[in-house]
Input
Amino acid sequence: MRSRSPAFSAQNLARLVATCVVVAGCGTSSSTAAVDDGALSDGADAGDDGTTLGDDGFSEPENDGLDLDGGTLPLPSADAGTPIPTKLRYVLVLIKENHTFDNYFTGFPGAESATTGTLSTGATLTRPAAPTGALPKDLCHSNACGQRAYAGGKMNGFDLNGAGQLPFVRYTEAEIPNYWQYARNFVLADHFFSTTLGPSTPGHAVFWTARSLSLDNASCNNPDGGTCAGFGCKADKNTTITAYDPDTCATKTTAPCFDVPALTDHLPKDFTWSDYGGPLALMVKSVAADPGYAAHFRKQADLVTDLGAGRLANLTIAHLWSTDASEHPAASPCTGENLTVDIVNAAMKLPQWNEMAIVVTWDDWGGFYDHVAPTVHKCSNGQIFQEGFRLPAIVISPYAKKGLVLHTPTEQASVPRLVEELWGMTYMSTRDPHARDGAAGSLMGAFDFTQAPRAPLPLTKRSCP
Output
């Protein structure tokens, strides 16, 4: 399991995009390959060059977030009844780490999933249940590994990324029972895709800007080998990231600071916002230029406490990428599911529950198998950056339909679109042609605003192995 540190520095955030070494795992000539426990650790490391594929060759961001204002709690909403077109004045988005839909919800009633997987050899295997506890390793989940797994739409290259049959494991309901409880009682979207095929930062940024701002994660390139300070537009000059043109797939190395629209710059009058955990909103110039920006950023560890104190902004986006509670492999999902339960339970206790929508989703595919090929945009240079693979998404609200599996094709950019639809905001795509909110599918089908508001559903955390 990878080591983690709560200390904040760009060195902790450094993520160097590495080309994953192609390793032919699971080679078998039979039409159906049996899977044993030993096969799960095939290719645990990339090979003789010393490159470790499990974490794409870089350190993933895992800082607990920022208390830039010295620890002052975020102010509760002061919207004073600003008119909006729906009954929901509060949106809480929880973004966990690195799991596909098939990895978490294979066999969920009414959802499209697959109990078998296809190997690069053309053979099929019966996908095994994930082991109890931690996995043997992390998996490569860069764009390069994603394109290899996509295999021109055949979805049969997942065994070529240096982890053998490990990408094919599936978590059962017994291993993530509370996620399945939320899905059974609220809404599970089974055709929700990542907006960009890549690792964490591209997925996390979408929730503020309806587009990925980069293809990779920020890198510290300090010539003296020291650490880099800051994040996003507040990062020092030695911090860089790979930006890309969604039309041409041309890439360039740049500062992790972007002049693009964000949800924060067109909220309804007096609506408030908070960014918990990873300070992704700081990648937007207009956010960093606000003299009062610091009051909007809080640590991941503060969220449950703040909710318990009745502190909830109209828009709260929590990038829960710190510690094993992020669910980032190789960690077991148990600790992370328990954190989600703590947060949702705390939110449900608030008087704002009857005006609330909670979206629980994940940032990227994590290297895991999914059988549904995304609709992709192939650039003239042959690269594929958009869309990525299916991710789980659960919509929880007193107005969520009970037990619905939402089959509407949606993506990560559908979440900022949902905020805009709930509150009557103009799509960011009217100002930025690369913003996806105007084109992404709508999640509004998850709601029935004619039904009586549903009671909270507090759940019980489980003991972790």
